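re: ur question from the group chat, yeah i did fold both. here u go
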Amino acid sequence: MLALIRHGQTDWNAAGRLQGRTDIPLNDVGRAQARAAASAFSGGLWQSVVSSPLGRARETAEILADALDLPIGGTYDELLEQEYGEAEGVHVAEIASRWPDRAIPGKEPEAEVARRGLRGLERISADHGGAPVLAVAHGSFIRYTLSGISGHDPRHYPRFENLSSSHVRFEDAAWRVHTVAGVEFAEVLLDLEARAAEDERAA
């Protein structure tokens, strides 16, 4: 079992700017979010905390590890956020007008983010002997990784709030999504299918 956790808030999050690989640190709100979220992971299930190398993810992981008295593991390049190229630092509201077709120069393809995410899950699991691990990463990364596992359109997944946690488990020879931002996947699946049906009707 792995919990994919979105990092705490940064100033660019608060301002609505796209971060991607730009290494923006946590702000004080983000640090408080991480401290407040730690209790949700207490109880002895989780064995260690790992993260993306970006500072906002690493500091979130360190806060969680300290609060839970868990070992802090390594950083994994596979957990890095999607590269957004020329859109990094741009306000989210401007993206559609500047790149209507979303063909942003320098952007990492979504399918590659999903493949990278699956490689990361495999590597973390292997490095930790299959033990339950908290993995702090990024919103778009989590979205595409979950969609790669479930086979659903990533656009139909909900938005991931800071410190939201989504659980995946390796079972029956494959990764399975168990929860999405704290909601059971069976419940989320209904919404994913409804959104897919809406797209088909609109096509």
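okk and heres the other one u asked abt
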Amino acid sequence: MLVLTRKLNESIMIGNDIEITVLAVEGEQIKLGIQAPKHVDIHRKEVYLSIQQENNQALNTEVNTLTNLSEFFRKK
């Protein structure tokens, strides 16, 4: 993990087109501004993990459905 120290209104760059700026520091909270191309998805980690879990559940449901259909037609 890369650890960087930034002050208020200072930024870091990720690649050529993603900029993260420290907008405010209030107690233990830090507000970040992120400028990135529209095609880049940006989520809080807990939201990202939730999306991944839902996608995996949907994939497993599809596989189970296809397996059940395959067994159904095999019996006929």
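fwiw on the second one: The first strand starts at residue 11 and ends at 14. The helical segments are 45-75. idk if thats what u expected
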